[in-house]
């Protein structure tokens, strides 16, 4: 059985939201705490990736903090920082800090998909193609691939799925676990919190 780390990407600037959205209350707790909790259910090692210099004050106990190496490099650079912090694990399951309703059962399905075969990443199928989050990746191959992508000037999170051998869980299978598809819901603007 593979060892699993959880990575919560939380280094964005929240420009569309207009404030630090990850600390905004959602169902009585900071928005980010929901993503951390879902990841913690499938991993004993949770890494939250923050912008450079952020200390993670107020994070739940047991959470480790990693920092982006430079400001404004995007989520792929955040993933790289998270993977480097999670090198002790065979597999990393990755979510965004603004995904408060991600299902831990869906995350477990992503991890299980990697246990089934030789793929180096697993993702959820959508009508637009594999969703870039949430995903599960084999830590070392993913870290190497992300490093190469960053040096090639690529910054899209979905690029990592293009270069890794990705097993895609079909919509029927993962929506049987999450019929309302809440695992893909993310908060970009204040109005999203009302949905």
Topology:
Elements: E1 4-9, E2 25-26, E3 29-30, H1 31-40, E4 45-50, E5 64-67, H2 75-85, E6 91-96, H3 104-116, E7 121-124, E8 135-138, H4 139-151, H5 159-163, E9 166-169, H6 171-177
Parallel strand pairs: 1-4, 1-6, 4-5, 7-9
Antiparallel strand pairs: 2-3, 6-8, 7-8
Helix pairs in contact: 2-4
Could you describe the 3D structure shown?
With 195 residues, this protein is α/β, with parallel strands linked by helices. It has one domain (4-185): Spore Coat Polysaccharide Biosynthesis Protein SpsA, Chain A (Alpha-Beta Complex), CATH 3.90.550. It is built from 6 helices and 9 strands; from the N terminus they run βββαββαβαββααβα. Strands 5-4-1-6-8-7-9 form a 7-stranded mixed beta sheet, with helices on both faces. Strand 2 (25-26) and strand 3 (29-30) form a beta hairpin. Helix 2 packs antiparallel against helix 4. The longest helix is centred in the middle third of the chain and has 13 residues, at 104-116. It is globular and about 40 Å long. The mean pLDDT is 90.
Task: Give the key terms.
195 residues; alpha/beta; Spore Coat Polysaccharide Biosynthesis Protein SpsA, Chain A; seven-stranded mixed beta sheet; two-stranded antiparallel ribbon; 6 helices; 9 strands; 30% helix
């Amino acid at each position: 059985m593979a060892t699993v780390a959880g990575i919560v990407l939380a280094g964005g600037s929240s420009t569309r939201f207009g404030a630090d959205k990850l600390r905004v209350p959602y169902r009585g707790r900071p928005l980010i705490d929901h993503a951390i909790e879902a990841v913690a259910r499938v991993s004993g090692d949770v890494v939250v990736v923050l912008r450079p210099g952020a200390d993670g004050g107020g994070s739940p106990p047991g959470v480790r903090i990693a920092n982006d190496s430079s400001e404004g490099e995007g989520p792929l650079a955040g993933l790289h920082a998270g993977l480097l912090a999670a090198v002790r694990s065979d597999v990393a399951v990755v979510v965004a800090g603004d995904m408060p309703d991600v299902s831990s059962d869906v995350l477990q399905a992503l991890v299980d998909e990697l246990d089934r075969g030789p793929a180096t990443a697993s993702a959820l199928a959508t009508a637009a193609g594999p969703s870039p989050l949430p995903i599960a990746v084999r830590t070392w191959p993913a870290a190497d691939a992300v490093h190469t992508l960053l040096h090639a000037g690529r910054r899209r999170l979905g690029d990592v799925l293009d270069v890794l051998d990705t097993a895609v869980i079909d919509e029927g299978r993962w929506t049987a676990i999450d019929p309302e598809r809440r695992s893909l819901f993310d908060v970009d603007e204040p109005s999203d919190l009302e949905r």
